Amino acid sequence: MIRTTWLLVLLLLLQWTGMNAQSFEDSTYPQPVSKKYAIEETDADLRMKKLVIDRDDNVYALTNEGLFVIIEDQLVPDRRYRPLADKKPVDITIQDGTGILYYLYEDHYLSNAHAGKPYGSFDSQEYTQIAVNDNGNVLLAGEEHVALDTNRGRETGTLEEPILEVKSYGGDFFLQTGTGIYRYEKGTARQVVEDAHIMDWTFGGEALFVSNDKGYYAVSAGSWQEQESLRTKLPVIPATSLAYRDGRLWAGSDIGMYATQNLEDYRYYAFRRWLQDDRVLDVAVDSEGNAYALTEQGISEVHFKEMTLKDKADYFYDRIRKRHLRYGLIGEVRMSEPGDMTTMEMHDTDNDGLWTSFYLGSEVFRYATTGAEEAKRRALESFEAYERLISINPLEGFPARTFERKGYRVSGGPEDWRPGGDEKWEWKGTTSSDEFVAYIWVAGIMDQYLDLTAGEEDRVARFIDQIMTHIIDNDYYFVDIDGEPTLWGRWNPEYINWYPETVVDRKLGSITITAGLQLAYELTGKEIYKEEMYRLFEDHGYLDNIRIPLEKIGPTPGYIHEGHDMGDGGWNHSDDEMAFLTYWVLYHYALNDELRQTYAEVITDHWDIEKPERNALWNLITYGTSGDIDLPSVQWHLREFQLDMIRWDVKNSHRKDLEFLEPNFRGQTTRELLPPGERETHRHNANPFDLDEGNGGLRSLAGDEYLLPYWMGRYLDVIVPVTNANN
């Protein structure tokens, strides 16, 4: 039975008022992906020295043991040219303007381009650096002397101080010494940048970018006058290596790599999500704009893959089906080796029901959008796991948190687990309100959108009826096998109204139980559910609780529940997750128009407070109920959502480019939210403003955190597939 009337009315109203403009086309965009190429050599004395990329996008790493190249996604010794295979270059360079690779050896230089004709010899160990300009002229540099090879022959010269680095730009050559950067021409070096603290420098966009111990700046490549003043709001200072291509400046540092297009805003690629190790020795960019970082362990690439949001959804869907389904339940996997998926195992968790509801929800909205029978079938497969949460234990209508074959449980302590009716299984008690929210969310959207048969409708109705009967019969508590209420399964008026209005549990508990009673009444037609809802409203003020403005929530010390200080721990983002999932059911199953309008105002009030978090799911749930949406944030969140769901450690508190806020109740640490790819991988129940978090790369989430908002966005016509794309 489909109950979409109110949503259809809402969407028609939005179209009539011109709000159907709240959509964006799912066109292709560059999705950053990490690719890592570990050095194959095992010699402990091997040292990385330099990174270059030639005109054919061959990526080279110069080491003290020879030249390495990326071939077939492996970093291996470059043995392609047999005469050079056993030789160890002193330096390598790319000819400016052509991208041709040149090799410098102890007593000669050469290139394989131009039929191998470029060649020059000199006394052994006389020169250690090489640069080649776009005219094919070659500059060789030793400690304090240089040689310039042109079609007229060789010219030599000396400097009064050691030469640290040589580069070419157009037809010119440049030298760095301890006092700055010099332009070298006709045996004369003229200083163009005076700076005794230079870390690295590169040309790009008719400018010379210079990094020093305080930041970086740019001078005009011609007049040598300041073009960009010193930038100090950088992710990491100093930038120890620079590269520029197609309007984007890249920088390597001792703590990762970062990039900017406007010299103001930065994308930060650091730690194991992006790099093999943090200390970047050199950076380079290929012709497609992909960036490479050289570290002691090899080369790491930030590869920009053209894809659509649908492509990303397909990627996560495939991973979930292959890695993350355990008896129809979904959750994270754990690895014995950081980041090594070959060591993964699927484990039970405290909130298997809640996490599964995101995946199941995505299948429901996929079916509602596309009519794919596969989506309906797989949603029902996971719903079987929900049904078993009730049937596996002997308590009437009490849902288990999760279940597992006997002897293989992982989460919680032994006191949380109970033997199943079948001695081969165990089930976990202590069920919480988080799980309850998952039950009503799943049952509600299945009833609305899944085109259930009469038998399937009965299953969904019975599932909710059993749970709600248990709650009512037990004085609005989840009562476990010991006969006692669970720690967080409590909706009793004495408990709910014990909290002051400044503690969110009073409001949230009233919201969740009201939604459950409304849903149960709609699914079963039993009057007791409607009567109980109005009794809680009229005798215990639950509707007034629901109306409490979120701005009232704040520090309220002294309200201790089972050892937990409920009023002074800061904003609980898990409560946001429970609230927004419940809002969908609360709104769509409202018993009358007046209540629905009240609920819409409540939802908008919460959405206003949540806007800084830019959460696509909260925005879409709000749009599908009260009609409010922050469309740019929906697109931003879904596009910026990273592909790597491994819970690597990340750090951002050291960054110099962020505007930090004073400690506050909501835990908002920075003025602007960092993109998901620069934050810890977490679910929707965590604070997205956390700066330093992680799990050491030993766990991986599934990606349903992306799938649900994507398919909800498709269903609500917020995300419009490209007509000629495979969407």
Describe the protein's architecture and organization.
Residues 12-19 have low confidence and may be disordered. A hairpin with a 2-residue loop joins β16 and β17 (180-185). It is built from 16 helices and 42 strands. With 727 residues, it is of the alpha+beta class. Helices cover 30% and strands 27% of the residues. The chain has a four-stranded antiparallel β-sheet with strand order 2-29-28-27. A four-stranded antiparallel β-sheet has the order 3-4-5-6, with no helix packed on it. Strands 7-8-9-10 form a four-stranded antiparallel β-sheet, with no helix packed on it.
The helix tally amounts to 16
Mean pLDDT: 94
Helix content: 25-40%
Number of strand segments: 42
- C-alpha-based Rg, rounded: 31 Å
User: If strands are numbered along the chain, what order do they take across the biggest sheet?
Assistant: 2-29-28-27
Which class of secondary structure composition applies to the elements? alpha+beta
Strand content: 25-35%
Largest sheet: 4 strands, antiparallel
* CA distance, first residue to last residue: 27 Å
Give the uncertain stretches in residue-range form.
Answer: 12-19
- Global shape: elongated
Oligomer: single chain
